[in-house]
Prior knowledge:
The protein is mainly alpha-helical.
Amino acid sequence: MNCDKDCGCCHKTKERSEAEVTGLVNRLNRIEGQIRGIRGMVERNAYCPDILTQVAAANAALNGFTKELLASHIKTCVADDIRAGNDEIVDELVGLLQKLMK
């Protein structure tokens, strides 16, 4: 059976350094805390603009996470695949960027 990207039977992985994993997880933990804080504000009937300000901050934090992970992906996975002659990675990257920019 041939495996294509969308079949669900194969998964790419990436080895990350302990420092990279720690940094990414720390960012996600902070974002998770922000989301819990927003939920608490809703539960306490906080004023809408105050909640929206916190939502904007959480979005900015998530965008920062996305930028960091994307930069790492391009510098490692994409660059390594291009050096190895796998030009299909460029199409994958273009598709990823299209998804991120919706």
